[in-house]
Amino acid sequence: MTAEPDTPRVVALGGGHGLYATLTAMRYLSPDITAIVTVADDGGSSGRLRSELDLIPPGDLRMALAALLVAPAALDDAAADGRSVEDAQLWGRLLQHRFGGHGALAGHPIGNLLLIGLTELLGDAVEALDRLRELFEVTGRVLPMSTAPLTIEADVTGLEADPRLSRCIQGQVAVATTPGKVRRVRLLPESPPASADAVNAIKQADLVVLGPGSWFSSVIPHVLVPDQLDALISTSARKMLIVNLAPEPGETPGFSVERHLHVLHAHADRLRIDDVIVDESSVPAGREREHLARAAALFGAQLHVGDLALPGQHVHDPSRVAEAVAGLVQTNPPPSGKRSPRRELA
Q1: CATH number, domain at 244?
Q2: How do residues 170-209 score in pLDDT, each as one tens digit?
Q3: Does residue 336 fall inside a structural domain?
Q4: Which of 123, 186, 280, 294 is the most buried (most CB within 10 A)?
Q5: How far is the CA of 168 from the CAs of 154, 161, 184, 223, 268, in angstroms?
Q6: Distances (CA, A) of 8 to 2, 27, 29, 69, 147
Q7: What is the pTM of this model?
Q8: Which pLDDT tens digit goes with each residue over 210-234?
Q9: What domain range includes position 236?
Q10: pLDDT at residue number 345
């Protein structure tokens, strides 16, 4: 389905399962979605392929493409356009399907190999993603946040006898699995190149959504690419931050919701956000929520609390997230008083 001229332009930034959930939610609101994806994964199939071929890791890009293909709203649009829903579901399963066995292919998702193969043939990961999008009739676009494979480096405390000392840990998997507390992360190379298409999408967006996801490896990296951060600062889009439902073992153990905001602000104190969206079960009413509102104010943002989780699970419910976002855009002007002159969500 081709987006109508008055369709709002939505940009979602993140990686992995968090971005998959966000894209599924935003697809309820608009077919005109651009996913901007982190490219620092060095584990599993993605890690094997990037180390062998020196290309950007494909895994999170593949997941974003699959999300846009099989989101419930995307399947509804396919049916309305006379396209086969069963085919779309099959291609989505194909992209995600991992080879079994114990040989060289074991553990590789087919979508990773397709994306890497096309990138080698065409010489450009963005063109490869666009060709896969056309092949599978995906509405929306998937882009890497950088055109180069990146490495995450972190300062981690709690690994030395002196708790005040930090150790430098390199690599996304190592950062996620090393005991201790992550204090700060960086990207290598420093000041990595942004994807020009991603920067342009942010500048032209009506709504930009950051998070949820692995905070130090899927969320914060998006503000560590200088040109992309500048685009996030200068865009006239409404900007929303969706915070994780719970601390993530390995990356953010023991983190409160408030702490998530403080560490993001420490990495990008120039960034302004309109809305911080939090699940009500993750922060009790009272003083803790008051502290959280003050943390949101560091970004110039208003705090919004609602029922966002699937019952009994630490997983966002895409339909509830979509409803919360649509409700905010329809009823509450951003605190900064700015609103995109182009379009609003309907």
Answers
A1: 3.40.50.10680
A2: 999 999 888 889 999 999 999 999 999 999 999 999 999 9
A3: no
A4: 186
A5: 6, 15, 10, 20, 20
A6: 13, 11, 8, 19, 26
A7: 0.93
A8: 999 999 999 999 999 999 999 999 9
A9: 10-152+180-331
A10: 41
